[in-house]
């Protein structure tokens, strides 16, 4: 499972931070950061989701008010 985070879309509500500890607050920029992620395009970050964090990752994606977080399965199909 993979998470994709669009940092440009993020509005800094930090609901994702409350749901999954892979997200951190960047109060200076008013946006979240995805720990351990690789920038795959300008402002787009991806990382693998550990098996024991799948529920939290999905919940973080669902809690984002601007849909800046997407979850994909191993086949590349979007789950959230």
- Fraction of residues in helix: 10-25%
Give the overall silhouette: globular
Poorly predicted ranges: none
Query: What is the CA–CA distance across the termini?
Result: 11 Å
Structural class by sheet pairing and helices: alpha+beta
Number of domains: 1
Question: What order do the helices and strands come in, and which of them pair?
Answer:
Elements lengths: L1 E5 L8 H5 L3 E4 L4 E4 L3 E4 L2 E5 L5 H10 L5 E4 L8
Antiparallel strand pairs: 1-5, 1-6, 2-3, 4-5
Keywords: Electron transport, Iron, Iron-sulfur, Metal-binding, Transport
Protein name: Ferredoxin (4Fe-4S)
GO molecular function: iron-sulfur cluster binding; metal ion binding
List keywords for this structure.
Fe-S_cluster_ET; alpha+beta; Ferredoxin (4Fe-4S); four-stranded antiparallel sheet; 80 residues; 6 strands; metal ion binding
Describe the protein:
This is Ferredoxin (4Fe-4S). It comes from Natronomonas pharaonis (strain ATCC 35678 / DSM 2160 / CIP 103997 / JCM 8858 / NBRC 14720 / NCIMB 2260 / Gabara) (Halobacterium pharaonis). This protein starts with a strand and ends in an 8-residue tail after the last strand. The mean pLDDT is about 95. It has a single domain (about 1-70), classed as Alpha-Beta Plaits (2-Layer Sandwich), CATH 3.30.70.20. The protein has helices at about 15-20, 55-65, and strands at about 1-5, 25, 30-35, 40, 45-50, 70. The strands form two sheets. It has a four-stranded antiparallel beta sheet with strand order 4-5-1-6, covered by helices on one side. The radius of gyration is 11 Å and the shape is globular. The chain contains two helices and six strands. With about 80 residues, the protein is α+β, with helices and mostly antiparallel strands. A hairpin with a 2-residue loop joins strand 4 and strand 5 (about 45-50).
């Amino acid at each position: 499972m993979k998470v994709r985070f669009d940092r440009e879309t993020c509005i800094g509500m930090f609901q994702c931070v409350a749901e999954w500890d892979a997200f951190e607050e960047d109060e200076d920029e008013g946006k979240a950061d995805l720990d351990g992620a690789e920038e795959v395009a300008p402002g787009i970050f991806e990382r693998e989701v550990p098996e024991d964090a799948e529920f939290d990752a999905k919940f973080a994606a669902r809690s984002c008010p601007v849909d800046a977080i997407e979850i994909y399965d191993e086949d590349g199909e979007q789950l959230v």
